[in-house]
Amino acid sequence: MSARRSFANWLIFLCVLHGIVFCAGFFAPYDPAEQDRTSPYLPPMRLHFLDMQRHLHLWPFVYSLKLRAGTFDQYEEDISAPVALRFFVKGARYRLLGFLPCRLHAFGIENGRIYLLGSDAYGRDQLSRILYGGQVSLLAGLLGAGITLLIGTFIGALAGYYGGWRDEALMRIAELFLALPWLYLLFALRAFLPLAVGPLQAFFLIVIVIATVGWARPARMVRGVVLSAKKRDFVRAARGFGATDPYLLRRHILPATSSVLLTQAAILIPQYVLAEMTLSFLGLGVPEPMPSWGNLLSSLQQYSVLVSYWWMYLPAVVMVPFFLGYLGLASSLHQRGQPYKMESPALGA
Amino acid sequence: MNRALNDNHDLHPILKVENLVKQYSRRNLASEREGVLALAGISFAIMPRTTVAVIGESGSGKSTLGLCVASLESPTSGRIWFEGKDVGELSQNERRQLRSQIQLIFQDPANSLNPRWNSLELLIEPLVLQRKINRDEMKRHAHSLLEQVGLPPEILERSPMEMSGGQRQRLAIARALALDPKLVILDEALSALDCSVQAQIANLLMELQINLGISYLFITHDLAMAAHLASEILVLDRGMLVEQGTTEKILRQPHDETTRRLLQSTPRMIRPAHPVWER
Amino acid sequence: MRYLLRRLRHGFLLLIGVSILAFLFAALAPGNYLDEMRLNPQLSPETVAALRAQYQLDRPLPVRYVAWLNSTIHGEMGFSFAYNSAVAPILIVRARNTLLLTSVSMFLAWAIALPLGVWSAERLGRLPDRLLSWGTATLLVIPDLPIALGLLVLAVKSGWLPSGGMTSVDYQALSPLNKLRDLAEHMFLPVMALVLSALPLLVRHVRAAVSEVLNAPFLLAAVGHGIPRRTLLYRYALPAAANPLISLFGISVGALLSGSLIIEIVMSWPGIGPLLLESILARDLYVVVGGVLFSTLFLVLGNLLSDVLLYFVDPRIRSESSAT
Lengths: 349, 279, 324
Hints:
The complex is a heterotrimer of chains A (349), B (279) and C (324). By secondary structure, chain A is of the alpha+beta class. Chain A contains 13 helices and five strands. In chain A, 56% of the residues lie in helices and 13% in strands. Chain C is globular and about 80 Å long. The N and C termini of chain C lie close together (12 Å). The relative contact order of chain C is 0.14. Chains in contact: A-B, A-C, B-C. At the A-C interface, helix 4, helix 5, helix 10, helix 12 and helix 13 of A face helix 1, helix 6, helix 7, helix 8 and helix 10 of C.
């Protein structure tokens, strides 16, 4: 398959995934903060098409869960009460994409609550939390990557184009940033910023922290492109016509960095999502009650949760298709630049 | 613009170079700094409406010479006079005007023409940069430039990647002519072309010299082509000017070892009657 | 030789630079550190006064930095408010554990990745190679956090391996052989997690580097000379691919160190990772700086090692360096 087709396919795949997450209000049956203290750690409800009499129903349904007799934390299906799944139901209010008020949900049930992916300690629906949490984590990744690429491009272009002491100084500083293993740098930066802040501030704080960690490598790559573009004859020719530096950068040199930036974006975004998850998992990132994939996993730090409630592990699994999509994108971008190599791996941390 | 009739300027050189030195510094594999002396003190002059050729092997410094004369590299030391004025002592504004007077045409048009642009944008870029044009006259100018180099007007919509090598180089020449230069430096401008195309472009260049009164500094490793086009030849070896003189003199009585070597390696015979070639 | 000395000096300057950077980050900390300390019930007023004198805590940043530098030269690296002792002794023990973990993982990862990559490069494009590529791609998309958690769940559910810590309770009472066995048992999971997270990229890069060399003209010429396959691979191809591979080695050290941070925390391996987390939450400034510095030290050492290897393997660097 040509690199172009491959790139388009991966892009579509990613857009669909992101679309589902960013329309979390629609796909999630409930508000992520809605609690039900009577149903802590409910296992995921299974969808059935065959009922007890082995009749095939066209419509999926679930059984509500009740406590198994004699236990206080083991659940089983209450087969006397099948509840049909309904699609396009009206439910809790939410704002689609942050501004459109809406009440339509993809699915839901009449009475009670449906837990397709189980519930947590407070009875909150995990599916809803994962979808909304994805918004936070993905946004952190996208925003962070955007900021890093902006900083990196600016510094790289400055260093590569003007050279001299600016280049030396900037690249030495970049080297310092690269000398630290990135997670340690992330921690060091996070360490000294206020720990107990509100969710929104924490979000922006960690986006900035994450973005600051990774500027060095894109800066170096942009510098490389600028250095070689600077020497290309069409740049020299333009200078021969009297072009000024800003003109050259704007019209000839920076457009040449586009492919490098795109590839870097495809590599950085999943890395940054992972960074947010790691920070939040350890309690250094987005705090409760705002869900994020990282802090959804933090309950796994308790031994009992880790062992007994396997569905709490699902946020870790959910990010895998996203990573796959970004990896595929990076691979196809790399292939576009080198059509004669068999397969070029994307470079990691 | 026809300068061919103006006799006054013929007495003074349009370009004079004195003791041009250029040194680069670079980093080698072990990350250490080392100096490279590209030009070790070159002096020569070009008269109006003539062609001077600079020949030498790779690494002889001839491209660096072209870049320095075109003000695309600043010399480490030495002086350059254009039309009697010292280039090094020009003001910012005068320097900009100078840019339109000296143009450089590069070896590989695939490299010297931005592949992401189309021909129209490429052709008018110099005019846009020198602010000599408004948008309405764009196409008109472009058409007249294409005419001068013998390209069809449909070319304007295409990008350089969609043209043949010869067409690309013609486009590069057209672009260089846009600002009405008095001196055009050709840095191996014919070397990347096929033989037959080389002849065509060479003839075009001669035509343009007669019609427009342009001087050429023709940089090449091809002695035969240089002898065909130029009235004066300079021979460079590792940054030093080892021989200099009219074409006749160089071909008939080469003094320097480098020149002799270059002569002997020339496959094409220009004047087969000369006994010196038979050695 | 001069090249190596230069690299050494470079690494040393890098460490100094990083320590300054870390201190600059520390300057971001809001509030007066001194006030926070005074509120700490564990520290007596005399201790607070002594610390203030020694580390110049109420003075501007450059002065504090110099005081810290001074204490580092004397082997203390500052003071830990949480542990109520000098930083260095705490750090060194933890650093040793991290070093143990990462070096074993590095060794294993490369020991697996090299032959696998070479094997894959030999069979480029054919079924075994494609299967391996799929395998590495799958592993590549699973980040280290889920891998670590997953392995932990496995350990806990199966009960085969201890699920945390470095040694068992009765470690000291064991015989040397059993001590080793105990250590290995505890190391197994974290090492496996690290190796699994590092392996896919390593294999891919080795494969890419070797396959490029295998297509080189000089190797085809050697085939034409009838040189046997094994010799071809190991005495012709591999040395030629050594340059990019050794650079890869330097980069992989950094990636592995980052990975070890989170894996140590998840699997309760007593390395720098858990200490760093603790001290961040406790706002123990000097421990954080020290921990970050140690991790950089390991990275710099790793890069130095790869520079040394490069010097001995690549004749171009040797000749360029001696020519000056």
